[in-house]
Design brief:
Strand content: 15-25%
Radius of gyration: 22 Å
Strand order of the largest sheet: 4-3-5-12-6
Structural class: alpha/beta
Largest sheet: 5 strands, mixed
Helix content: 40-55%
Number of helices: 12
Amino acid sequence: MRQITFDLDVLRSFVTGMELGSFAKASDRLGRSTSAVSAQLKKLEEQAGTPIFRKSGRGLALTDAGETMLGYARRLLELNDEAASAISGVELEGWVRLGLQEDFGEAVLPDVLGRFARAHPKVKIEARIARSHELAERVTTGSLDLALAWHNGDRMPHSEHVADVPMRWIGPARPMQESLLSERELPLAALEAPCLLRTKATETLDRAGRPWRMAFSSPSLSGIWAAVAAGLGLTIRTDIGLPASVVALMPGVSGLPALPHMALNLHHKDADPDPVTGKLAEILIQGVMDALPENTLSSFARNKLKNVA
């Protein structure tokens, strides 16, 4: 039986195209021509010795072998990228202080911490989950080295725009939305003030002339999820980290006004971050971008991903 050695560049194009839902988008992200990516996919099928794709309408879908290949390709690339990070940063030591909002705490933080710790075991990470205004303040005062936060309007000296993320109306997973939406004053569940998303929700409703009332307030996001799941009111967040007990409502449902996008920024304590902070920032960007649609990314994030890839 012949030995097969899969080309990691080919696997990266394959995985990127499947994750973005388009190999044209994959070619743009990876800095290759579409014809080059097509040639890579043909090479992958030749190496596998079996069809990876099948026709599905005007597009392509994975065969059973293709689905199996996708799972292994992700694992191979993750191991390759960890090895590259570990070798290049084997001497990294020290500690870094990271700040995140609750939205990213469960959805992104475990993966980021795991990947960083495996690559740089001698580095200690101190993580803080807080609101955007607190995170920005802590970066400014020097008590955090790095923070990912919604843009609150303040000018930060060392900040990079990562993405513009669409806000969504969030309701209970159980069929309660109709009764909530039929109330004369729309019931809301929100974090205690000051809260950027709370302000966005009320300002949007006011501009649309839709009456509202604050039905539930909590200092924690977990409290908001519990209230929404119980049918106490709607809230607004993003698609990131939604628990199974709530759902994002379709735009325009029952006359709910369209919501704006929220700018997501990466704040640095220093203009020229030290190697430890720089490495964590790279892995953080990768983790966050895995949770966001391609069309929300800023040019900074796209370039970052190309460089990492």
